[in-house]
Automatic annotation (TrEMBL), chains A, B, C, D:
Alphabetized InterPro entries for the sequence: Aminotrans_3, Aminotrans_3_PPA_site, Dat, Ectoine_EctB, PyrdxlP-dep_Trfase, PyrdxlP-dep_Trfase_major, PyrdxlP-dep_Trfase_small
Enzyme class: transferase
Record bears the keyword Transferase: yes
Cofactor annotation: pyridoxal 5'-phosphate
Name listed for the protein in its UniProt record: Diaminobutyrate--2-oxoglutarate transaminase
Length: 437, 437, 437, 437
């Protein structure tokens, strides 16, 4: 299941009858999506496991679509959260200065930005990824005085109009109800299956004054495309992209909403390529505990905003500041989590590598670090079947890709090797059975 | 202060030296706004008061720009929140079924929708007002197959591209960096000062096939314009608008993000006019405790969404569901809060009415219920001066209107009469002194 | 008949059988329009009369929709044309310097621009009105750096995308196949029937920074709206519009494609108001003989074009230059034609005034000079019936207005009083009979 | 010189002093282009030669940018034109049926459409190429209900907003003053110098639902790109494009405004590829004598226009109908002109082939038939120098290409071999001298 599917499974009917779900059927819009394939009522969660109200426990390799890199309800963040609430720490503050925001900013500066030599300003654009993307696009347009944006095939950046216009998925684009303009998609790394140099087209049209491409303000790119099918760009491709942008005086925006916060190993997904983007968006796991928060980062000289030129009621979510500070201090004061992620990622590739050896024409592994995908090359429909069967065996995984042909793991990074093996075995068995039918 | 001002006061320099604010100056983007006029570091809050880290207490008539109708850190919601967290209630769930969401839906259905005869579906579009507006516009376009939207002079609907395109403020619009199209503004009620029939233009262009107006999918309107200057539409105007929409087969969207949840007395700001909009957006105070949440409501027959056609990572914010359910059950099981609001609103108009009698050519009262404004008719710049002086006297109020000429009260609805008097006296004295200089 | 009607009369079947029209039915697109209501095959023409191939003669009060102000095949222009062709004068020259262009420019400068104190540059944008409008909009946007344009209800400016976006007619707009954006219609003079001040809305939204109107580059307006129903703006309204534009630093474009070249008496339709627009478009009768030609005029300081930034293959139509020069020299060296037009216009109003006196609730006279309209106030469908019956009686007239409710005369200005009486009597009788049924 | 150059040579100052050119300097807009490099006042023309007012004769290999395929002032067309004018044949008729239009339609049907098995409807969209393109785009959007268009790198389709949006040249696009949207450029044949399969990108993005390309209504393409640098697409590429369009249910529009009417040998430039486009645009040489005329052709089942949905004052230019009929009857009743063109084209390639052999790294030949280009591969600036020196030696040639690096021949097709040799020798000598400096 990605959220692209338009069929409407009888999600309500499928809920076991120990749960009262009438109100969902009666009141919740048909736009609901995950409940359709996982028709249970969830109640509590801890680490990599979530539990339904009837006590069924599921292993969660879905990870809040990237929002739960530190797992569900981390105890240290929980303690900080409870302490903040108990002492009546201010909850809602718009963009006033608060003690909680200061601690977050200080930790983020000390542990994340400075060690990486990133002299960014931090903007709180409203607490969702799409808000961060909208603010990034606005800023790039303001700085350059240009309107056009280059995006990439199979990109995903969000559902509000600005973000949607740089998103690839045709079903989601159609939802806009107006023609989405100002963005031109370029081929992502390996779009032609390695046969040709994917960069050729992009370089050529930017250098040719007759190409018909409106001169862009910025390029927006994910270092690993999550929704697009766990497509990982190579370091050399990203480096070449960064250099092309510099040469052409175009701003480079890395959308790290899903792939940042350690998903690929390092905190930012672009670090491995040795590049410094002009603008970076973060959300999902930045709050640490699954609470809404987003930040937009940019070079100090790009900070040309007028006061209040972009705002939002919930841009200062102090509960999220409280847990975000703990997340950074706990997990990013050393390189343990980073190494753990890289080792787990390596293990995953080795483990599923055997399955690929068994079905070399059917399967392909995708991704980087703990952004991991298993693509069904010949029978894309099996991915959805695998998802459903994994659910039956108490494992949550999602699908991705333009044809929902990729099983996507975004398991919490804090997962133990045992838990990782547990879920991986389930998934591998399911796939093997499906392919062996 | 509205968030429109482009001057950059030395907010950092103005912070009293008992606070360490270096990190804000170093790292936070120049887009920050409220901190400029209220240069203090806030720490805790309760009811209508917030306290800085050095122990200074402020009376909060700003109310989180409408997100704190129930005051800061309400004890019953706090208890529910702590209980949810302590027992490891699931925090982040996207749109899975959860126990917390079920309780919210049930309460919202029982206490809000059913008693008002509103047979709406409920959509969780992402936890911000602008997300709700974007989803409303998408749905209206999908249902009708048309692109154009009618909005109103001095409207405010949010900062992402779709919402911004239906927003009036020229500074915020310019921030888009692209021409904002597809929306045509119509004159809001009383736009011409009562001299002419404001509806004439809108009716005429819709009926004239040669008017050049693209046939609209929907009209989007606030019953009281908050950012626009606390402009309250009359019941008869709203009723006529609703009828015009029906006659012309255009959907009516009420944006109740700021004016809903009891701000004008009744739960929805449109109830007093006896109309039933096709689509309604809610956010800000719907979470109860100042936590990010938004809902989009619409007639059941308009629920034509494909599964996942609009989504968002934080659309299931269970902490907010927990507090939102308490807010509804506590405050909307009877009409006490509603009556309290209407009485306080009446008191405000009587109290400030005396000030207007003293300065009849300088001042004008605006608004409805506890959406209250005092407009400076001749010397708009005094509003900002009053705001600054109120801050000196430990009262937070905001300004609004195209020229920041209106002092805006969005005090928590749970304010006591004594608290209301306390703050109103400060404000009245400040205004009187300024006008008497 | 305007060209708005979507019904498809059997135009081919209606052609008298002395004519061979099979090829039209077989090959010509259904987009054809005038042939539907005037199903004859025309062959020759002179002055105000055109003759079919079978020798039927029609009195032409339609005047090529404004392209034949000097009548069909004027003898002096014909002589110049023949002489140019016989001596192999260059026909096609793009924008090279030619002897024929020089003569046109000199005559236009000496007889038209200088006597009126209009220090304009002359641009040849391609030989059609819509090309002139497109170039005017481009120039206004280039000069101001803004995108938005204000147009007026029931305006008509052409069929290419730029011109269509500032045109009011909904059927023609729908033909674009994309949402037409960047233009906002304002109420034309007398749009509300004189009850209210039509200017109020426009002035207010331009002065209000919160109105939601994108700051416009220019206002484009016809002094008399032809297609829109022969609506004539008053001098004081045009003067106020001109002053508003100056005050707001917005360029004023007068589209004089149909109403220029003496149609309202003076050469330009704006002269009577004592204003000097920033940009003026001319086409239709500027070529004199019905040959394609267009010019765009603008203040010298606005001539910021790069060489070739707007071009077109037929922008130097030397046959049209040859006839245009004769037209100007013959008809605009003195005020005879102007006076003739004003007197004929006066006579028309007196003559049809009697018909209005007889049917005061049914009819209304419209227009200025020889732009003349008779509106059917209560039974708009009678205008089309009148047109058809006039055709039966050998008179060509057109209809106009959003509901095709206005009979429109654009008779050649060179018409004699006798010819004017002849056609007017036919038309008056037809109307009287229809209203008296 | 293409029309892209932004420098402003002192064209007026350069005119020899036997001519009076003051009025051009005083009144004609700076947008003028060709007069800058050819600062003479032209008076008469015949065949392939034009003569200035002082009697200087130039050999014209520029051919009215494609509008003079039959040369200047062809005697048979001249006779028909004079006869039409002398007998007062109707000149201006909008889209009424006329004798002259019937003859044109009949000849076009008999000599052009039927022999080629093209069952097209014929539309008269206004007498310029850009008008034909605008009508083609409208129709494609109406038929498909989609907005997006695919165009190609270095395309040129016209200067009105719709046509400009599918044009590649960045200087001309910037002239729009608004962001040009709805079109996405694809790589033209051989865009990558033959290294990679240019079709790969286009096929892939159309087939990938996640590519981010809005599903297009149509593809618009020139079989040889004139302004873009005389780039000729291969037959197999065009065939593949046609098949891709069919497979993807996208309409194929061939813009034959410049390359039609025999320029490449056959009447239509697409015939050699054995394809039948859905829509075709023609203008420039279709009128025969250099008079403004344009037609849009389309499959009969696409004729969904409402009457008058696209119109234009000069869409019935009877003088052009008269000459166009003669042109078709004289030149397209047999294959003499076609063969002459192909043979001359072959000769040109042989003749200049020797020059390329002498300077193999500097020069490249381009084009097909009598669309002929000589590209300066290493020193693009020499093309402009060659143009100027050719002018000194009494030969008119133009430059083309994104960097004006291509000398472009669009000599009249009726040119004799002697004339062709005469001009070619001048040009070859000039180039050789420049390269040998």
């Amino acid at each position: 299941m990605t959220e692209n599917n338009t069929e409407t499974p009888e999600d309500i009917a499928a809920v076991p009858d120990h749960s009262d779900v009438a109100i969902f059927g009666e009141r919740e819009s048909e736009v609901r999506s995950y409940s359709r394939n996982w028709p249970e009522v969830f109640d509590t969660a801890k680490g990599v496991r979530i539990t339904t109200e009837s006590g069924e426990q599921y292993l969660d390799f879905f990870g809040g679509a990237g929002a739960l890199n530190y797992g569900h309800n981390d105890d240290d963040m929980k303690a900080a959260l409870l302490e903040h609430i108990e002492r009546d720490g201010i909850t809602h503050s718009l963009d006033k200065f608060t003690v909680a925001k200061r601690r977050f900013l200080q930790s983020f500066s000390d542990k994340i930005l400075e060690p990486r030599g990133l002299d960014y300003k931090v903007m709180f654009p409203g607490p969702t990824g799409t808000n961060a993307v909208e603010s990034a696009l606005k800023l790039a347009r303001k700085v350059t005085g240009r309107e056009a944006i280059l995006n990439f095939t199979n990109s995903f950046h969000g559902m509000t109009l600005g973000s949607l216009s740089v998103t690839g998925n045709s079903m989601k684009r159609a939802g806009a109800g107006i023609p989405l303009v100002h963005a031109t998609p370029m081929p992502y790394d390996n779009y032609f299956g390695g046969i040709t140099e994917d960069f050729q087209w992009m370089e050529r049209v930017l250098e040719d004054s007759g190409s018909g491409i409106n001169r862009p303000a910025a390029v927006i790119v994910e270092c690993v495309q999550g929704e697009g099918g766990i497509n990982a760009a190579r370091a050399e491709w990203l480096k070449a992209l960064s250099e092309l942008c510099k040469r052409q005086d175009i701003l480079l925006i890395i959308d790290d909403v899903q792939m940042g916060c350690g998903r690929t190993g390092e905190f930012f997904s672009f670090e491995f390529a040795g590049i410094k983007p002009d603008i970076v968006t973060l959300s999902k796991s930045i709050g640490g505990y699954g609470l809404p928060l987003a930040v937009t980062l940019f070079r100090k000289d790009l900070d040309v905003w007028a006061a209040g030129e972009h705002n939002g009621t919930f841009r200062g979510n102090n509960l999220a500041f409280a847990t975000a500070a703990v997340a950074i201090e706990k997990y990013w004061s050393d390189d343990k989590l980073q190494n753990h992620t890289l080792e787990n990622g390596k293990w995953l590739r080795e483990f599923f590598g055997k399955l690929v050896e068994k079905h070399p024409e059917e399967l392909e592994l995708r991704g980087r670090g703990m952004a991991f995908g298993i693509a069904f090359l010949k029978r894309p429909e099996l991915a959805e079947e695998a998802l459903a069967e994994c659910f039956n065996r108490k494992l949550l995984v999602e699908t991705a890709g333009p044809n929902d042909e990729v099983i996507k793991f975004l398991a919490p990074l804090v997962i133990t090797r045992d838990e990782l093996e547990e879920g991986s075995k389930i998934c591998a068995e399911v796939i093997d059975e499906l392919l062996s039918k």
